[in-house]
Each structure stands twice: as C-alpha cells, then as structure tokens.
Design a protein that fits this description.
Elements (H helix, E strand, L loop, with lengths): L1 H17 L3 E10 L6 E5 L5 E5 L7 E8 L6 E5 L6 E9 L2 E10 L12 E5 L6
Antiparallel strand pairs: 1-4, 1-6, 2-3, 2-5, 5-8, 6-7
C-alpha cells in the first residue's frame, strides 16, 4: 500500500516537469552598417519568426518567447551582400546564457549557398 501511494505521489511531479516552460530571450546585434539584415528565431516548438534588424550599427534586437524544450531555442542572423560586419548572437534560457556567438560575417557575391552570410546560433532552425 505504501508503495502504491508513493508511486501516485510521483506522477503529478513528473507531469509538472513535462509541462515546465522556459523563458527564452533572443539577442542580436550587428556592429557595422548592414541594412536589410534579419534575425530568424524559434517562437514555439515548430515555428519561426523573422525580424528586420536596425540599420544603425550597434543597435540591439531582443525578442522573448516561452518554449517547453529549451534545446529547441535557435536563431540565425543574415546579412546581405555587399555588407559585412561583426555579429553578436545570444540566446538566454531562464536568464542564463545558453548560446553565444560573436563572428565576422561576410556574404559572398553570387553564392547559391542558403547559409551565405548567415550566422547560426543555438539549435538549427527548421528547414535550415
């Protein structure tokens, strides 16, 4: 009987852990002139959203969402030719840095590579 009661008490805790949500903050910054740059990021387990970044060098973009699985948090920042710049990409999970990339991004003219001029950060995006 005690074993049966103990098992029953564990089930609600397990259900709560499975339903736990995580606060995700996406941060992107282009440290240079690169008009038309965009950030694409996960907004739930299967969908992305895209935002145009400020054309002012050093302006920070920030977006927030909630995900059940923080391992699915991913973002990419795309610059378009002929612009190149240092790019900062950061993903915070529950106010802790989970992924961070700082890299110089230089798109190549005429490239057919879909990742040309793209800085990935965190989990890969669907279709990327």
């Amino acid at each position: 009987m005690a074993a049966a009661l103990g098992g029953a008490q564990l089930s609600p805790g397990t259900a709560q852990a499975q339903n736990e949500k995580h606060n995700i903050t996406y941060i992107a910054r282009v440290d240079g002139v690169a008009p038309g740059s965009v950030a694409t990021f996960m907004i739930n387990d299967t969908q992305t959203n895209t935002a145009t970044l400020s054309s002012l060098p050093g302006s920070t973009f920030e977006a927030n969402t909630v995900l059940a699985d923080p391992a699915k948090a991913g973002m990419q920042v795309a610059l378009h030719w002929p612009y190149s710049a240092n790019v900062h990409c950061e993903i915070d999970v529950d106010d802790k840095v989970a992924a961070q990339v700082d890299q110089f991004v230089r798109p190549m003219p005429g490239s057919t590579d879909p990742m040309n001029g793209v800085l990935p950060c965190g989990a890969p995006l669907p279709g990327a």
